[in-house]
Amino acid sequence: MEVEQYVKQFNDIASKLNGRGKQSIALVIMQEMAKDRRMAEIAEARQNNNGSSATARQIAFARALEIELPENATKKEATKLITEAITKKQNGMP
């Protein structure tokens, strides 16, 4: 966001508040909105990252669990297969 957009947003929020300390309250609201926006960006990045190739650690761990990963396994696929294998072992299944 551009500075002007932040200032406009701050003024819009402050104009909807009444009483003493409305600028402080508007500032806190802006901070919470920024946190929400950042968390949404992080969630989107994580979701998009699931389509990338499995990491070296995932591949090594899968081998240690004697799991055959597909050649071009994604992080999401590797995680699913590893989780399934661990669950089976915990439940005493072969």
Summarize the structure.
This protein has 94 residues and is mostly helical.
Would you write up a description of this structure?
The structure is a single chain. The protein is mostly helical and 94 residues long. The chain has 2 domains: 3-49; 56-90, no CATH class. It contains 4 helices and no strands. The protein has helices spanning 3-15, 22-49, 56-64, 75-90. Helix 1 (3-15) crosses helix 2 and helix 3 packs parallel to helix 4.
The share of residues in helices is over 70%
Choose one word for the global shape. Answer: elongated
- CA gyration radius, whole angstroms: 23 Å
Instruction: Please indicate the percent range of residues in DSSP E strands (runs of 2 or more).
Output: under 5%
Return the domain count: 2
Q: How many strands?
A: 0
Q: Tell me the distance between the termini.
A: 54 Å
The succession of helices and strands, N to C, reads: HHHH
Give the helix tally: 4
User: Quick one: biggest sheet?
Assistant: none
Uncertain segments are none
- Summed over residues and divided by their number, the pLDDT gives a mean of 90
Q: Given the helix and strand composition, which structural class is it?
A: mainly alpha
Write the layout of secondary structure elements.
Blueprint: H1 3-15, H2 22-49, H3 56-64, H4 75-90
Q: Which features would summarize this protein structure in a list?
A:
2 domains; mainly alpha; 94 residues; 4 helices
